[in-house]
Protein backbone atom coordinates (compact mmCIF):
# COMPACT_ATOMS: atom_id res chain seq x y z
CA UNK A 1 0.00 0.00 0.00
CA UNK A 2 1.39 3.41 -0.95
CA UNK A 3 2.32 5.79 1.82
CA UNK A 4 0.16 8.91 2.28
CA UNK A 5 1.85 12.12 3.35
CA UNK A 6 0.11 13.56 6.40
CA UNK A 7 0.63 17.15 7.49
CA UNK A 8 -0.14 18.07 11.07
CA UNK A 9 -1.84 21.44 10.63
CA UNK A 10 -1.65 22.10 14.37
CA UNK A 11 2.13 22.48 14.05
CA UNK A 12 1.89 25.26 11.45
CA UNK A 13 2.40 28.82 12.69
CA UNK A 14 0.82 31.91 11.16
CA UNK A 15 3.77 32.48 8.81
CA UNK A 16 3.37 28.95 7.46
CA UNK A 17 -0.28 29.70 6.69
CA UNK A 18 0.58 33.01 5.03
CA UNK A 19 3.31 31.35 2.97
CA UNK A 20 0.95 28.57 1.89
CA UNK A 21 -1.72 31.07 0.85
CA UNK A 22 0.76 33.16 -1.15
CA UNK A 23 2.16 30.11 -2.97
CA UNK A 24 -1.39 29.01 -3.80
CA UNK A 25 -2.12 32.48 -5.24
CA UNK A 26 1.05 32.47 -7.36
CA UNK A 27 0.15 29.08 -8.79
CA UNK A 28 -3.40 30.29 -9.50
CA UNK A 29 -1.98 33.18 -11.52
CA UNK A 30 0.21 30.79 -13.51
CA UNK A 31 -2.80 28.53 -14.16
CA UNK A 32 -5.36 31.23 -15.03
CA UNK A 33 -3.33 33.85 -16.89
CA UNK A 34 -1.48 33.47 -20.17
CA UNK A 35 1.14 36.22 -19.82
CA UNK A 36 1.71 37.39 -16.23
CA UNK A 37 4.64 39.33 -14.78
CA UNK A 38 5.99 39.68 -11.24
CA UNK A 39 6.92 43.20 -10.16
CA UNK A 40 10.40 43.30 -8.65
CA UNK A 41 11.87 46.60 -7.47
CA UNK A 42 14.57 45.38 -5.09
CA UNK A 43 12.39 46.36 -2.11
CA UNK A 44 11.81 44.01 0.82
CA UNK A 45 8.26 42.96 -0.14
CA UNK A 46 9.21 42.12 -3.71
CA UNK A 47 12.26 40.24 -2.40
CA UNK A 48 9.94 38.12 -0.25
CA UNK A 49 7.79 37.59 -3.36
CA UNK A 50 10.84 36.14 -5.14
CA UNK A 51 11.41 33.67 -2.32
CA UNK A 52 7.76 32.60 -2.49
CA UNK A 53 8.02 32.21 -6.29
CA UNK A 54 11.08 30.00 -5.78
CA UNK A 55 9.07 27.79 -3.43
CA UNK A 56 6.12 27.74 -5.83
CA UNK A 57 7.98 26.89 -9.05
CA UNK A 58 11.57 25.75 -8.50
CA UNK A 59 13.46 23.80 -9.74
CA UNK A 60 11.80 25.05 -12.94
CA UNK A 61 12.01 28.59 -14.26
CA UNK A 62 9.40 31.10 -13.15
CA UNK A 63 6.37 31.06 -15.48
CA UNK A 64 6.65 34.84 -15.80
CA UNK A 65 9.32 37.51 -16.23
CA UNK A 66 10.21 40.03 -13.54
CA UNK A 67 9.07 43.61 -14.15
CA UNK A 68 10.33 46.92 -12.76
CA UNK A 69 9.20 50.46 -13.49
CA UNK A 70 12.32 52.60 -13.19
CA UNK A 71 11.65 56.26 -12.38
CA UNK A 72 15.31 57.14 -12.71
CA UNK A 73 15.20 58.46 -9.13
CA UNK A 74 15.89 55.20 -7.32
CA UNK A 75 18.44 54.56 -4.58
CA UNK A 76 21.63 53.10 -6.14
CA UNK A 77 21.97 50.48 -3.36
CA UNK A 78 18.55 49.08 -4.29
CA UNK A 79 19.22 49.03 -8.04
CA UNK A 80 22.52 47.22 -7.50
CA UNK A 81 20.75 44.63 -5.34
CA UNK A 82 17.98 44.22 -7.95
CA UNK A 83 20.43 43.47 -10.74
CA UNK A 84 22.53 41.10 -8.61
CA UNK A 85 19.47 39.13 -7.46
CA UNK A 86 18.09 38.81 -10.98
CA UNK A 87 21.46 37.54 -12.21
CA UNK A 88 21.65 35.08 -9.32
CA UNK A 89 18.21 33.68 -10.12
CA UNK A 90 18.84 33.58 -13.86
CA UNK A 91 15.41 35.05 -14.59
CA UNK A 92 14.40 37.65 -17.19
CA UNK A 93 13.92 41.26 -16.10
CA UNK A 94 11.73 43.65 -18.08
CA UNK A 95 12.30 47.32 -17.21
CA UNK A 96 9.95 50.15 -18.12
CA UNK A 97 11.85 53.46 -18.05
CA UNK A 98 10.06 56.67 -17.14
CA UNK A 99 12.73 58.57 -19.08
CA UNK A 100 11.24 56.99 -22.23
CA UNK A 101 7.77 58.23 -21.21
CA UNK A 102 9.16 61.73 -20.65
CA UNK A 103 10.95 61.80 -24.03
CA UNK A 104 7.77 60.61 -25.75
CA UNK A 105 5.73 63.35 -24.09
CA UNK A 106 3.62 60.81 -22.23
CA UNK A 107 4.82 62.22 -18.88
CA UNK A 108 5.25 65.96 -18.39
CA UNK A 109 6.99 67.16 -15.25
CA UNK A 110 6.37 70.59 -13.81
CA UNK A 111 10.01 70.83 -12.72
CA UNK A 112 13.18 68.75 -12.85
CA UNK A 113 13.05 68.04 -9.11
CA UNK A 114 9.36 67.01 -9.05
CA UNK A 115 8.70 63.57 -7.56
CA UNK A 116 8.24 61.05 -10.33
CA UNK A 117 6.44 58.56 -8.11
CA UNK A 118 2.98 59.86 -8.97
CA UNK A 119 3.71 59.49 -12.70
CA UNK A 120 4.69 55.81 -12.58
CA UNK A 121 1.20 54.74 -13.69
CA UNK A 122 1.78 56.01 -17.24
CA UNK A 123 4.99 54.03 -17.70
CA UNK A 124 3.49 50.95 -16.01
CA UNK A 125 0.41 50.93 -18.26
CA UNK A 126 2.53 51.53 -21.38
CA UNK A 127 4.83 48.65 -20.42
CA UNK A 128 1.87 46.34 -19.75
CA UNK A 129 0.45 47.19 -23.17
CA UNK A 130 3.80 46.85 -24.95
CA UNK A 131 4.43 43.35 -23.61
CA UNK A 132 0.78 42.22 -23.52
CA UNK A 133 0.83 41.32 -19.82
CA UNK A 134 -2.57 40.12 -18.65
CA UNK A 135 -1.63 39.96 -14.95
CA UNK A 136 0.84 41.84 -12.79
CA UNK A 137 1.80 40.35 -9.43
CA UNK A 138 2.89 42.79 -6.75
CA UNK A 139 3.96 42.85 -3.11
CA UNK A 140 1.43 45.39 -1.83
CA UNK A 141 -0.09 44.65 1.59
CA UNK A 142 -3.40 45.76 3.09
CA UNK A 143 -1.77 47.14 6.24
CA UNK A 144 0.27 49.69 4.28
CA UNK A 145 -2.44 52.23 3.55
CA UNK A 146 -6.23 52.67 3.71
CA UNK A 147 -7.01 52.29 0.02
CA UNK A 148 -4.89 49.15 -0.23
CA UNK A 149 -7.00 47.65 2.55
CA UNK A 150 -9.97 47.87 0.16
CA UNK A 151 -8.31 45.83 -2.55
CA UNK A 152 -9.10 42.24 -3.48
CA UNK A 153 -6.27 39.72 -3.98
CA UNK A 154 -7.20 39.42 -7.67
CA UNK A 155 -7.94 43.03 -8.57
CA UNK A 156 -9.52 43.70 -11.97
CA UNK A 157 -8.31 46.59 -14.17
CA UNK A 158 -10.30 47.79 -17.18
CA UNK A 159 -8.95 48.58 -20.65
CA UNK A 160 -7.72 51.94 -19.34
CA UNK A 161 -5.86 50.33 -16.42
CA UNK A 162 -8.34 51.80 -13.95
CA UNK A 163 -9.50 50.32 -10.64
CA UNK A 164 -13.05 50.75 -9.33
CA UNK A 165 -13.10 50.14 -5.55
CA UNK A 166 -16.91 49.85 -5.59
CA UNK A 167 -16.99 47.19 -8.30
CA UNK A 168 -14.82 44.29 -7.17
CA UNK A 169 -15.23 40.56 -7.54
CA UNK A 170 -16.07 38.34 -4.55
CA UNK A 171 -13.35 35.97 -3.31
CA UNK A 172 -15.27 33.49 -1.20
CA UNK A 173 -13.51 30.27 -0.13
CA UNK A 174 -10.22 31.53 -1.66
CA UNK A 175 -11.61 31.24 -5.19
CA UNK A 176 -10.08 33.85 -7.48
CA UNK A 177 -11.56 35.12 -10.73
CA UNK A 178 -8.93 36.06 -13.29
CA UNK A 179 -11.28 36.38 -16.27
CA UNK A 180 -10.70 39.42 -18.44
CA UNK A 181 -11.19 40.58 -22.01
CA UNK A 182 -8.40 41.66 -24.38
CA UNK A 183 -6.90 44.94 -23.19
CA UNK A 184 -7.94 44.37 -19.58
CA UNK A 185 -5.69 42.86 -16.94
CA UNK A 186 -5.52 41.66 -13.34
CA UNK A 187 -3.36 42.96 -10.50
CA UNK A 188 -2.56 40.22 -8.00
CA UNK A 189 -1.45 40.74 -4.39
CA UNK A 190 -0.29 37.49 -2.71
CA UNK A 191 0.94 39.40 0.36
CA UNK A 192 -2.42 41.08 1.01
CA UNK A 193 -2.88 39.47 4.42
CA UNK A 194 0.72 39.98 5.58
CA UNK A 195 1.86 42.82 7.83
CA UNK A 196 5.17 44.65 7.92
CA UNK A 197 6.07 42.58 10.99
CA UNK A 198 5.18 39.34 9.17
CA UNK A 199 7.50 40.34 6.32
CA UNK A 200 10.43 40.92 8.68
CA UNK A 201 9.80 37.73 10.65
CA UNK A 202 9.70 35.78 7.38
CA UNK A 203 12.95 37.44 6.28
CA UNK A 204 14.49 36.30 9.56
CA UNK A 205 13.14 32.74 9.29
CA UNK A 206 14.27 32.35 5.67
CA UNK A 207 17.58 34.23 6.13
CA UNK A 208 16.77 36.46 3.15
CA UNK A 209 19.35 39.04 2.07
CA UNK A 210 18.24 42.66 1.70
CA UNK A 211 19.77 45.91 0.42
CA UNK A 212 21.88 47.59 3.10
CA UNK A 213 19.58 50.62 3.05
CA UNK A 214 17.06 48.73 5.23
CA UNK A 215 19.49 48.68 8.16
CA UNK A 216 20.94 51.49 10.28
CA UNK A 217 23.67 53.46 8.54
CA UNK A 218 24.96 57.00 8.54
CA UNK A 219 24.14 59.32 5.67
CA UNK A 220 23.70 63.06 5.02
CA UNK A 221 20.07 64.12 5.42
CA UNK A 222 17.97 67.25 5.77
CA UNK A 223 14.55 67.83 7.32
CA UNK A 224 11.54 68.24 5.06
CA UNK A 225 7.98 68.32 6.41
CA UNK A 226 9.24 66.75 9.62
CA UNK A 227 10.96 63.84 7.85
CA UNK A 228 14.58 62.93 7.09
CA UNK A 229 15.28 63.15 3.37
CA UNK A 230 18.53 61.82 1.97
CA UNK A 231 20.86 64.14 0.10
CA UNK A 232 20.64 62.55 -3.32
CA UNK A 233 21.53 63.74 -6.86
CA UNK A 234 17.80 63.97 -7.66
CA UNK A 235 16.86 65.27 -4.24
CA UNK A 236 19.30 68.03 -3.27
CA UNK A 237 18.80 69.96 -0.06
CA UNK A 238 16.78 73.14 -0.73
CA UNK A 239 18.49 76.49 -0.23
CA UNK A 240 18.89 77.28 3.45
CA UNK A 241 18.24 73.71 4.62
CA UNK A 242 20.61 72.33 7.23
CA UNK A 243 22.38 69.19 6.04
CA UNK A 244 23.63 66.89 8.79
CA UNK A 245 24.68 63.29 9.21
CA UNK A 246 22.24 60.99 10.99
CA UNK A 247 21.96 57.31 11.86
CA UNK A 248 18.96 56.19 9.83
CA UNK A 249 17.39 53.31 7.97
CA UNK A 250 14.59 52.94 5.42
CA UNK A 251 11.34 51.13 6.18
CA UNK A 252 10.30 51.26 2.53
CA UNK A 253 12.16 52.23 -0.63
CA UNK A 254 11.01 53.97 -3.78
CA UNK A 255 11.51 57.27 -5.53
CA UNK A 256 14.27 59.03 -3.56
CA UNK A 257 12.53 62.38 -3.92
CA UNK A 258 9.51 61.28 -1.86
CA UNK A 259 10.83 58.50 0.40
CA UNK A 260 12.14 59.48 3.83
CA UNK A 261 14.39 57.66 6.26
CA UNK A 262 13.67 57.08 9.95
CA UNK A 263 16.10 57.55 12.82
CA UNK A 264 17.18 54.10 13.89
CA UNK A 265 20.03 52.12 15.39
CA UNK A 266 18.56 48.81 14.16
CA UNK A 267 21.44 47.25 12.23
CA UNK A 268 20.26 43.61 12.32
CA UNK A 269 17.06 41.85 11.33
CA UNK A 270 16.34 41.04 14.98
CA UNK A 271 16.63 44.71 15.99
CA UNK A 272 14.40 45.78 13.09
CA UNK A 273 11.76 43.25 14.17
CA UNK A 274 11.78 44.68 17.70
CA UNK A 275 11.50 48.20 16.29
CA UNK A 276 8.64 47.35 13.93
CA UNK A 277 6.76 45.51 16.69
CA UNK A 278 6.84 48.64 18.85
CA UNK A 279 5.79 51.22 16.22
CA UNK A 280 2.22 52.40 15.72
CA UNK A 281 2.79 54.32 12.48
CA UNK A 282 2.60 52.53 9.14
CA UNK A 283 5.72 52.52 7.00
CA UNK A 284 4.11 54.64 4.27
CA UNK A 285 2.60 57.00 6.83
CA UNK A 286 6.02 57.55 8.37
CA UNK A 287 8.14 57.79 5.24
CA UNK A 288 6.20 58.68 2.07
CA UNK A 289 5.90 62.41 1.49
CA UNK A 290 3.32 61.99 -1.28
CA UNK A 291 0.99 59.85 0.91
CA UNK A 292 1.41 61.33 4.34
CA UNK A 293 -0.62 64.50 3.97
CA UNK A 294 -3.45 63.24 1.76
CA UNK A 295 -5.56 60.20 2.61
CA UNK A 296 -7.08 60.29 -0.88
CA UNK A 297 -3.71 60.42 -2.68
CA UNK A 298 -3.13 56.68 -3.01
CA UNK A 299 -6.73 55.82 -3.91
CA UNK A 300 -6.79 58.51 -6.60
CA UNK A 301 -3.55 57.17 -8.08
CA UNK A 302 -4.79 53.58 -7.94
CA UNK A 303 -7.94 54.55 -9.82
CA UNK A 304 -5.64 55.86 -12.55
CA UNK A 305 -3.52 52.72 -12.76
CA UNK A 306 -0.94 53.02 -9.96
CA UNK A 307 0.12 49.80 -8.28
SSE topology:
Layout: H1 14-32, E1 36-39, H2 44-57, E2 66-70, H3 76-89, E3 93-97, H4 98-103, H5 120-131, E4 135-137, E5 154-157, E6 185-188, H6 196-206, E7 217-224, E8 227-230, E9 244-249, E10 262-263, H7 269-278, H8 283-287, H9 289-292, H10 296-303
Parallel strand pairs: 1-2, 1-4, 2-3, 4-6
Antiparallel strand pairs: 5-6, 7-8, 7-9, 9-10
Helix pairs in contact: 1-2, 6-7
**Major sheet strand order:** 3-2-1-4-6-5
**Strand fraction band?**
5-15%
Helix content: 25-40%
Tell me the structural class: alpha/beta
Tertiary shape: globular
- Compute the separation of the termini in Å: 50 Å
Features:
307 residues; alpha/beta; six-stranded mixed β-sheet; four-stranded antiparallel β-sheet; 10 strands; 34% helix; disordered N terminus
Characterize the structure shown.
The protein is globular. Helix 1 (14-32) packs across helix 2 (44-57) and helix 6 (196-206) runs antiparallel to helix 7 (269-278). It is built from 10 helices and 10 strands. The model is unreliable at 1-5 (pLDDT under 50). It is α/β, with parallel strands linked by helices. Strands 3-2-1-4-6-5 form a 6-stranded mixed sheet, with helices on both faces. It has a 4-stranded antiparallel sheet with strand order 8-7-9-10, with no helix packed on it.
Amino acid sequence: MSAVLQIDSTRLNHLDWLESEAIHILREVAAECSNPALLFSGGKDSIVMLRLAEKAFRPGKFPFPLLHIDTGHNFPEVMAFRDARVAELGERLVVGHMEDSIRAGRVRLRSEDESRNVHQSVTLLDTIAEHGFDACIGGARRDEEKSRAKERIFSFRDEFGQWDPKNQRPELWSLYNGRHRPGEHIRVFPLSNWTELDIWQYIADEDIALPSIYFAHRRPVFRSQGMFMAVHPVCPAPPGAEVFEALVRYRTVGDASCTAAVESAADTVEKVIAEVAATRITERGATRVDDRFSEAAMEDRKREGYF
